């Protein structure tokens, strides 16, 4: 099972990641069909002595091999545009969280009900139990099945706030506010890292997000 998992994409934890996985599978099936068809045609034409190797003009063939790629691109473009639209759309967020990238840690700010700020550093490897290089001392906590708006920025250089299992990646640019929408389907802990080379400690500013139920989230906010 572990060897098979290496060939698969990461499991989805959000509706957006599900759409990305579906688009990946859809596109790979089209590419595989094209590859198999072209391979069979080439093998058949090279072995068939009746094929006209000196063919220089055929209007029907030229029309087919011009029209078919256009049709294939349409079948790829339609789900791609749909997925891009869903990734950019922010639908009535219930909670807004602001994250700021620093060299080399993240800070988070909750300001809907009461203002709460904290910094999130990578947990030292001496502190056990912890996941190596991806666990932090203060996790970002959100309620699952709730629409969240993330405001992303930076205080120094360009960073990138990324959680692969959520299908989210947004650059943190100094002097600019970028926003993304996310929603987890289930409770759990999800990991990410800065995906922009931001300095010598770029590999040591992980992201850890914990998804819990709304009752536990309200209790966490109060305490």
TrEMBL record:
Details of cofactor binding: Binds a copper A center.
PANTHER family: CYTOCHROME C OXIDASE SUBUNIT 2, CYTOCHROME C OXIDASE, SUBUNIT II
PROSITE patterns: COX2, COX2_CUA, COX2_TM
GO cellular component term, pick one: mitochondrial inner membrane
Record carries keyword Cytoplasm: no
Compartments where located: Mitochondrion inner membrane
Domain Cytochrome oxidase subunit II transmembrane region profile, residue spans: 1-91
Membership in a protein family: Belongs to the cytochrome c oxidase subunit 2 family.
Protein name: Cytochrome c oxidase subunit 2
GO molecular function terms attached to this record: copper ion binding; cytochrome-c oxidase activity; oxidoreductase activity
Ranges where the Cytochrome oxidase subunit II copper A binding domain occurs: 92-223
NCBIfam families in the record: CoxB (TIGR02866)
Oligomer status and interactors: Component of the cytochrome c oxidase (complex IV, CIV), a multisubunit enzyme composed of a catalytic core of 3 subunits and several supernumerary subunits. The complex exists as a monomer or a dimer and forms supercomplexes (SCs) in the inner mitochondrial membrane with ubiquinol-cytochrome c oxidoreductase (cytochrome b-c1 complex, complex III, CIII).
């Amino acid at each position: 099972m572990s060897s098979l998992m290496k060939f698969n994409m990461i499991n989805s934890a959000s509706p957006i990641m599900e759409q990305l996985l579906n688009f990946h599978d859809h596109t790979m099936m089209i590419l595989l069909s094209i590859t198999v068809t072209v391979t069979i045609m080439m093998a058949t034409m090279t072995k068939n002595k009746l094929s006209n190797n000196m063919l220089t003009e055929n209007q029907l063939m030229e029309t087919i091999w011009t029209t078919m790629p256009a049709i294939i691109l349409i079948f790829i473009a339609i789900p791609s545009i749909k997925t891009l639209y869903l990734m950019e759309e922010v639908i009535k967020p219930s909670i807004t969280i602001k994250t700021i990238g620093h060299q080399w840690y993240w800070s988070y700010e909750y300001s809907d009900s009461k203002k709460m700020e904290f910094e999130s550093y990578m947990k030292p490897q001496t502190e056990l139990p912890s996941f190596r290089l991806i666990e932090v001392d203060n996790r970002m906590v959100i309620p699952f099945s709730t629409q969240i708006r993330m405001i992303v920025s930076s205080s120094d250089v360009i960073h990138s706030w990324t959680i692969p299992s959520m299908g989210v990646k947004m650059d943190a640019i100094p002097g600019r506010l970028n926003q993304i929408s996310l929603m987890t389907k289930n409770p759990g802990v999800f990991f990410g890292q800065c995906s922009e080379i931001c300095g010598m400690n770029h590999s040591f500013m992980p992201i850890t997000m914990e998804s819990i139920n709304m009752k536990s989230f309200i209790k966490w906010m109060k305490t």
